[in-house]
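Hey team,

Filing this mostly as a record. A colleague (T.K.) asked me to run one chain through the structure pipeline before their review meeting, and I want the input and output archived in the tracker in case anyone asks later how it was produced. No errors, nothing strange. Just documentation.

Input sequence:
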Amino acid sequence: MKKRIAPFLIVITLLVSLFALPVMAVGDVIDFTRDNFTLYPNQSYQLNMKNNAAVTSYASSDPGVVTVNEAGIVSALKAGTSLVTATDDKGNQATCTVTVRSGTAPQRVTVTQQNIALTEGETYTIKAAVEPADVNDPRLFYSSSNPSVARVDKDGNVKALKAGDAVITVESGSIAVMTQCIVKVAANAERNFSVSLNGTLYSIAGEKKPNMVVELLNTDESFETTTDTDGKFYFDDILRGTYTLRIFKKTQRATPLASGQLTVGNHDMALSCIINNKELVILYQNEKEGTEKVTDVLLEKTSLTLEPGTSYDMSFRVQPANAVLPNMKASSDNEAVAIADVDGHITALSEGTATITFTVADNKNIVRSCKVTVTPANNTTASWIIILTEFSILLLIVMIFFISYSKFKRKKERDEGLINPKYGRRAK
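Output structure:
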């Protein structure tokens, strides 16, 4: 009896093993930090792996175009394309495409300033050039080592988001020729005043002075309000025109701390004031014309899937349609995974999930959120390896099952006299 159940025990053991086998995870697959790049003849480049993965060997599909040594240094020989493969000690592989171009190669990338100091909210445009002037590909490419601190667009415009350091890399048409700028972002020590006109909130840089008296007047009208504990003040239903804005201490109305001109147009305003010898500058100004207060803001998407290092610009839609798009506040419940700014620019940083919340600055009841899922880059090769491995194991199990069942059945028939043991045929 024990011999009869042995084949079934083997099958059950193999089935359990199938689910217990450690499947190759996509995260274990090695990958280059760049999956394609360009060089010119006689230029070289040091390959780098994501997460500093260890590599045991490198190979070039066309050594006549590029060679690669054991340290991962690629050397360009002549125009063409070659596939460079890296292999680790487990047999995992990664590939990148190297294109070697002919023509005048870039020799140097220059910038007017390599150390940039900014304050949160400030912007700066990197002025860069590639030499020589007759280079075959004059394009420049910008990237930030820490986009949560300083973000840079394709034109070299840097925006300081929060205190910290970031390195901006300016790359030429050849990956071997680049330069870097160090960006240091300081926290904004100044607090914000805010003014809301016709439902549109404006933030004005200045010292935080809660319980200040704010006066707005012209020849026909006069308005007065006080700042709240956050240093904000509001005016509603202000007609078009030019006003004098003055800020006083609540206990001292004789001499204003700040004064300046405030122009109210088609939901568009300009303000210039002096407070303690510091100019009050509008940080956010909505130039979109509208005629109604916003009652709701809808997001283009409520869920989003991105890969690390990618971004998405969220679009907003206001209700009613002729309302002014208000200033928004943006926050993330997991800034290690994804961040966003007030313009709706969402940046994915690392694998995981984060909820990005957008709030209308002067109406905290209007809150909209978007769930951002950051997944690792899709690796088709790894997926096929997993599928083929599981299929092969399943096929092996099925074969073993049928062989075991066949042997069991034939033995049973022998025991019952259905098969002639001498000839191995069924008894007549």
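Quick notes for T.K.: Residues 296-374 form a domain with the Immunoglobulin-like fold (CATH 2.60.40.1080). DSSP finds two helices and 36 strands in the chain.
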